[in-house]
Design brief:
Layout (H helix, E strand, L loop, with lengths): L22 H17 L6 H8 L3 H4 L6 H25 L4 H22 L1 H12 L3 H23 L9 H16 L1 H5 L5 H16 L2
Length: about 210
């Protein structure tokens, strides 16, 4: 039903140098991921990573121009997992409203799990949002594209209204759902997330009704 929702091309992350498929880059990202999870992003320096990996700091800089660039690569991987999961769960829906509900339920569940289970990864995600990293921008753009696809499919099926301009509608939905997608905003109020987010999703779907 509908169109694939995970076929949005990824833009290359800022700050990466050298061949995109270089195995050394993957090795640096993997080691940095483990280090950040243990010590936290904010408390780790490139020098710390160099010592932990066994490379010189200068060698790491051949592949990434800053700690942020390494963090972006890790964050991109983490956010890709969230969007891939969301796309897969949404595709199981039997209608556009069902796909919409599944999409955001998946995103909210995964974001909340990151807060509870992967605290150090949350530190990177929070930094990416606070500093408006390219990884965070691409993530929001991908989610917005998935929302737009669901709305368009719902309009074709007669399940959603057709009067509101699609860009205006998609932007409004993203703004309404932002508190449940943003790790720093979600952290401010972790009580009753399923109930609160479910009520907001239902409100959005009522506003989309024809």
């Amino acid at each position: 039903m509908g169109h694939p929702m995970n076929d949005i091309p990824d833009s290359p992350a800022a700050g990466q140098r050298g061949p995109a498929d270089h195995s050394i880059r993957d090795q640096i990202v993997s080691a940095a991921d483990e280090h950040f999870r243990h010590y936290g992003y904010g408390k780790t320096t490139v020098s710390d990573l160099a010592k932990a990996i066994g490379f010189s700091k200068a060698y790491i800089y051949k592949f990434f121009d800053s700690k942020q660039a390494i963090g972006e690569a890790i964050c991109t991987n983490c956010l890709k997992e969230i969007t891939d999961n969301a796309a897969a769960r949404a595709a199981e829906g039997r209608s556009a409203p069902d796909r919409f509900r599944r999409l955001f339920r998946s995103i909210i569940d995964d974001t909340a799990e990151m807060l509870f289970q992967e605290r150090k990864m949350h530190d990177i995600a929070a930094a990416s949002c606070a500093e408006n990293w390219g990884s965070a921008q691409r993530y929001l753009a991908q989610v917005a594209a998935m929302v737009e696809r669901i709305v368009l499919d719902g309009r074709e099926a007669g399940e959603f209204e057709r009067k509101t301009p699609i860009d205006e509608l998609t932007g409004a939905i993203m703004q309404v759902m932002k508190p449940f997608m943003h790790p720093m905003m979600l952290e401010l109020d972790l009580d009753d997330i399923p109930e609160r987010s479910g009520a907001v999703i239902s409100l959005v779907l009522r506003s989309l009704a024809p």
